Fold this protein.
Amino acid sequence: MSTSAPTQADIPRPRSPEPRPAGRRRDRTPDSHGFPTRPYDLVKEFVIALVAVSLLTAGLAAVFSSPDEKAITMRDWATAAPNDVVATATGELAGTTTSAGYGPPYNTNDPGQKLGPLPLQSWGGVRIPVDSANDLVVAPLTLAAGDPSLRAALGVWNRAPAEQQTAWATAYGDALAKAPDGDPGQVVAGDYGPVPIMARSFLTLARSGGLEGALTSSGNFYGGDQTRSLLLLADGAYLEDQARARHLGGDQWGMTNETGNYPGQPWMWLYTFWYQIEPFSSSGNADALVWGLMMLLSAALVLLPFIPGLRSVPRWIPVHRLIWRDYYRRYPARAGLRDGHDLTPPREGVG
Amino acid sequence: MGAWDIAADGTGRYLSWGPIQISVTNLVIIGAMVVVFVLAILLPFPRPHDETPEQQP
Amino acid sequence: MTGRVIDAAFGPPAEAAPAAESGNWTVRLRTRIAHTVPPGQALPDRQPVYVASWIYVFGVLTVAAFLVVLASGGVLALGGSAWWHTSGVGHFTNSLHLWSVELFMAFMVIHLWGKFWMAAWRGRRALTWITGAVAFLASIGTAFTGYLSQSNFDSQWIAGQAKDGLNAVGIGAFFNVLNPGQMLLWHVVLLPLVVGVLVIAHVVLVRRHGVVPPIDATEE
């Protein structure tokens, strides 16, 4: 017996990894080990591939680099769009912002989206509770309240009933919307209670650079969870304006894009495609519907071998005739067609 | 390219055609992938002249 | 039958009991591992003659790109999540990571296209297709959490947008894209593990069943 490791030539070739029980349908795809072979260096091929990809990556990285647009800080926002900050703070107090009326997982102010009859958003539950008015505005202001007029305003706010709070904030929000450029300095007089002072102080807090800390860490030394800061930022118009200017908006196929001329995530093309067309583009349940549809299509991709018709496309459109043209030419006898052949996986199951 | 609108606003170049909007970069990448796929299928695969004869099973 | 082949090549096992009847878990595991791939097929030095097209290199190119992704990601991890904003070496490493990911996705999709037109799921290879397709989807998720971990404007915008899709179906309550601490750990630990296990399973399955024969090919 040879003392070296057995090679293909030494070992009687098994017809398949496991013996087939009697009575099963014969697998029509022959065993790959039953074909003529030629020498081949698997490890060398892998090493060549690794070197080639490494060099290609290094070349692309050296030539094109990668984008890094700085995150928008609250201070940046306050400096670039102060009126937007004031309007957003007012909206949080009035309960008119996106986060305030979001529903689960932040609050119960909206039933949320449904996939057909299934209230999936509700099923998630309120597991990330955020009270927009108190958590995003009042709490940071309270932490930062050194100014006596702000402390007094907060006192008035906290003592007022909820309906009064909403009335003040809504009135101020409407007045800001009517003022030229949303400028708080040009708002007509009205009954806004403590809201103008709170909104102005909020802007000052944002400008100071302390707002993220007040939102994220509050009471906890270590941050790490930017939920509140991001919800507040997303409630304003400035973040979206910056994104749309860079073609990153939802209706701009933004999911596939990146800042500058960089490649984005082009593989997201089908996910974002549905948002661009009806009925999704005007549906309040668009997110749930698109997700459901993409789950279906993903399942179809994964389970392709079991889907009649779809799994036969490679036979109907014979790209394989090109791929294996060399083999078909050299072994015509082995490439004979068999009647009634269908490209099915064996009925006995996978593996 | 007559049917395509091109937006070049300094923050990236984009083409649009009906509901489709795509960045030039993404289009180049996808186009290159298709070209590479077609070439991979069409280009002849070399058989070394000194290869040992095929072994029949 | 493969057991007899192994015995013929390497001599019978030390234990007297045949492996299939052994109550010894170690023996049973060893036997199972040894029979995962036909003998000589884990690292074969021959391949079927029909493997003769450039389309066949895209699997190994995908694996190679995956390793570069892991390596560049590992270097980024050395410096921490904010390192690349302030370090030139860090930024270059980030660029390596970005472009190796682009190459990884491109090679994988071209590989998928090739395997589709070859109907490579034939001959008990459905699980090979399935592990590949799931790895593809898992890779998309991994890339997504990577974008969330950049700690820059991109991360802010993508998080704000993605949360709506995930919240709408209840997932957002558990998978909070606005929480970079959570997203970074998914990106660096959980998802690469999932993709890695799927890739290993996928490659083992290819070695186990061999490269799928051409459509309509016969052995005789």
User: Anything to note?
Assistant: Confidence is low (pLDDT under 50) at residues 8-17, 19-26, 338-342, 346-351 of chain A. The longest helix of chain A spans residues 42-64.
